[in-house]
Amino acid sequence: MKQRKNKKRVPSFRKLLKTSKVKLDNKLKNKQFKQQSIAKKYRKEQRKLRQAVKDVTSRTSVPLEEYKKKHAAERKEEEEEEEALPLDMMDEDDLKLMEDLAQKASFVTRDLSSSEPVHAKKRKQESVIDRYEKMPRRMQTEPEKELIHLLPIKDKSGIIPQTMEKPVINVAQNEEEEDTEEMEVVEESSEEPQPVLTTDELLIQRRRKLQEKKIHIAALAAAILSDPENSIKKLKELRAMLMEQDPNVAVIVRKLVMVSLMEIFKDITPSYKIRPLTEAEKHTKVRKETQKLREFEEGLVSQYKFYLENLEQTVKDWKQRKLKKSNVISLKAYKGLAEIAVKCLCELLVVLPHFNFHNNIIVLIVPLMNDTSKLISEMCCEAVKKLFKQDKLGSVSLGVVKVISGLVKSRNYDVRPEVLKIFLHLRIKEVEVKKDTEDITAKKKFMSCKEKRKNLSRMQRKWKKAEEKLERELLEAEASESKEKKLKLHTETLNIVFLTYFRILKKVQKSPLLPAVLEGLAKFAHLINVEFFDDLLVVLHSLIASGDLSYRESLHCVLTAFHILSGQGDVLNIDPSKFYSHLYRTLFRLHAGATNDDMVIVLQCLNVMLTKRRKQVSQQRALAFIKRLSTLALHVLPNSSVGILATNRILMQTFPKTDLLLDNEAQGSGLYLPELDEPECCNAQNTALWELHALRRHYHPTVQKFADHLIAGAPAEGSEALRPDLSRRSGTELFETYNMKGMTFNPPVASVTPRKKDKFLQGDSFLNEDLKELIQTHLNEAAVHRPLDFAKHLKESSLS
């Protein structure tokens, strides 16, 4: 017989080298997975076996019923015919088992009247044992030995590969050992009870921990600020303290870390936006300093991003009333954390508008302007106002306006009025007009070559060339390009603002947002496109005529209409007499007993309607307004009286023929009708300004000076002329100067004798009987409730 050659060869060294580490690792993982699956199957079989034994032992035997006689006879005959079993070959245990099985009931002895299925119990009893018996038996075999290939040895005979057996990990044994170790640890911990600390000891321990955390935060912050480029790891460590888990100091530590990181980022962030590197830049070799700067910028941006995500998550958890799984911080404490997080976001929004993720901060802050919490809403609104104020170019403002417009639309115009009032703080004074786009920044024209040769000498051409080159370089660095960009951004911003305003006017006219819309339209009306003027004026007049607006809202409608007509609307042929009549009719609706902002709007309306449109205003209209304003000055507070009289002074100087109101003689036919609501038809030329003589005895000295000045004909020079600080200021400015915000007028008599009271009433002979009765009531109330001295009250009320 020829002996067969063993075809298996010892693996060569080259082949061993080709065997990759990945294959060996995969082989090792497969072996371990097989061992774990074998151990799991073994435990499963043991569990089933125990369950089967438990089922058999818990089963109770059913007693055998008496057979009927006919069945007994038949059974005896069958037993005689059957061959006898060789009982001598059976053990005692087997005989006993057979006897036990014979005692159990079968379908022959079963009660047929029962409704239970015949084989129900039998199937249930036999299923577990049969299932176990059918399972294939597996003998516990030794696990296959796994070989680890070592470095080969080379001798004279050749290369000898080296291997060694890898120790096999027994999974089941390891699990049992781990369980025993855990039990031992639990027993040890239960044997050693921790001492119970008193309240004072707990407070001392908390103070000590808090002090340690504060020192640690301060040390990290100081190290980062001293050397930012080499302290990214410390910045990461400080940011990790935002997830402080100690329930005793978690809230305070997280607040301190939030504020500390905010101040650190404000100091170490560069004044430019960091962009990610391209693939080509990553593979390009650079100097060591440049590589170090790149690593610092990359680490700074990543840590700043994680910090903003932590702040955002804190706010979201508070808004959604969610608790973390660790339950370290309660829901009540989350409100304080959320307030600090919003404060940090607002500060970063204002201080770092140029840095990365600024748009993300805007998206976070703008919805919080509509928050139910007044503190958070005010913080966000103030931050956006500051951002608008310092935004010179307009790109940041455009981003904020886009987000606000989207928020208003997504909420179906159900937002707080403060959200829309933010638009009033936009720094937009001019926009890009389509016709004049080319004329906004006239480009510098340079001479052509032919013109130079024709008009200039050789030396002049040389100097001209150098001069033009310098001018081109200056134009690139000049702000002319940024001005064009600024106008484009402002135009786009204002388009979004007007789109929001027009949607509200069209869809939700009875919304609480209407005052903010009208106020915004009044401010930016001179920048509205001429195409919208007709439709907008019709809408404003319909709003006034509907009667659903408040007094302040109707004043805003009037102011908006005249702002439109005083700007580009000069070219339009529109008669605003309805708006004049409305303002003339509603002047007496001003609150006379308290300072309010409605007077400011009235003074602004008068300035736009009468002073700026002096060429379109008739003399009859000017006379009617001066007379009604003088009557109104008797009833309002001193600051309002000063503003009204200053407006009258400007009107008398603008319309010189109105001095006929200072004469008692009637001009023309007709009788003055003060109750008529049409200024053109009330015959104001046939009355006189007798109210000025009453205002000369006003208790406020500035009102007295204005009354004397107007009686003298409002001269610009002479003894009756006003001081420069009064004559150079408008009625609105004077009203703001003498403003008594939040004060109401209380009659200035308290601890006064009845004789002085009668003297006070007799001196004011210009008052009618109803007004005298009202003052008498106030005097009586003041004597009971406010025992103040008359002179003292006059001193406090005097604002000169």
Summarize the structure.
This protein has 800 residues and is an all-alpha fold. Helix content is 61%, strand content 2%. A two-stranded antiparallel ribbon has the order 1-2.
Summarize this structure as a short list of keywords or feature phrases.
chromatin binding; 34 helices; 800 residues; disordered C terminus; ARM-type_fold; single chain; Nucleolar complex protein 3 homolog; mainly alpha; nucleus; CCAAT-binding_factor; two-stranded antiparallel ribbon; 2 strands; 61% helix
Structure report:
With 800 residues, the protein is mainly α. It is built from 34 helices and two strands. It has a two-stranded antiparallel sheet with strand order 1-2. A hairpin with a 4-residue loop joins β1 and β2 (159-166). α11 crosses α12. The protein is elongated. Residues 81-87, 105-124, 435-443, 741-772 and 777-800 have low confidence and may be disordered. Belongs to the CBF/MAK21 family. One of its GO terms (biological process) is DNA replication initiation. InterPro entries: ARM-type_fold, CCAAT-binding_factor, Noc3_N, Nucleolar_cplx-assoc_3. GO terms for molecular function: chromatin binding. It is found in: Nucleus, Nucleolus.
Map the helices and strands.
Layout: H1 13-18, H2 21-58, H3 69-81, H4 92-102, H5 120-134, E1 146-154, E2 159-166, H6 171-191, H7 199-226, H8 232-240, H9 250-268, H10 279-283, H11 288-319, H12 331-351, H13 358-368, H14 374-390, H15 395-410, H16 417-421, H17 437-440, H18 449-455, H19 458-477, H20 480-507, H21 514-524, H22 533-546, H23 551-566, H24 577-586, H25 598-611, H26 619-633, H27 638-654, H28 691-695, H29 701-711, H30 724-727, H31 731-737, H32 754-763, H33 769-785, H34 790-797
Antiparallel strand pairs: 1-2
